[in-house]
Design goal:
The chain is of the alpha+beta class and 170 residues long. The protein has seven helices and four strands. It has one domain: Metalloenzyme, LuxS/M16 peptidase-like (Cytochrome Bc1 Complex, Chain A, domain 1), CATH 3.30.830.10.
Length: 170
């Protein structure tokens, strides 16, 4: 949902970027994780892209997600899950720590019921998960990198932005 909101606002509405992605990384055994928002933009628009992404992240409560948006995201997630089940790497990620006593609530049912969990997810579930994302000024960090064959000659020929935050989940 966060990726969709960033993509719709920063790319489609404001035209500030070519692409936006959102990745959430959590640990099975530790109560912490992080997320990364990556934006590919032109040098002239990169700082506006940073601000727009921050505004989207901080504004998810005021710009409520609709049932239609959630349904579309669920369909996308289910199709992606189905496609990724053909990958050994995906299965290894799902199966990691399955028998570990340090991860007591993870068992084969978690994997078997994953499509059902996507199907029954509600807007309230999305906002409950959102509460764990740190979006305040002290928790967001950004870095800008230059890419391309002429990166050394022209300081900002193509720019990729990463916003990230470390969140302790308690």
């Amino acid at each position: 949902m966060v990726k969709k909101c960033c993509f719709t606002t920063v790319r489609d509405s404001l035209g500030l970027t070519y692409d936006v992605s959102f990745e959430l990384s959590l640990f099975d055994r530790l109560k912490l994780g992080w997320y990364v928002v990556s934006v590919t933009s032109t040098p002239a628009k990169v700082y506006k892209s940073v601000d727009a992404c921050k505004n989207v992240l901080r504004g998810l409560h005021s710009n409520k997600i609709t049932q239609r948006e959630l349904d579309r995201a669920k369909r996308t997630r289910l199709m992606r899950h189905e496609a990724e089940t053909k990958s050994n790497a995906y299965w290894l990620g799902l199966l990691s720590h399955l028998q570990a006593t340090s991860v007591p609530r993870k068992d084969i049912a978690c994997i078997k019921e994953m499509p059902l969990l996507y199907e029954v997810a509600t807007i309230e579930d999305v906002y409950l998960a959102y509460e764990f994302l740190k979006v305040d000024e002290d928790s967001l960090f950004s870095c800008i990198g230059v890419a391309g064959s002429q990166a050394g000659l022209f300081p900002l020929t193509a720019t990729e932005l990463h916003l990230f935050s470390l969140a302790i989940i308690g």
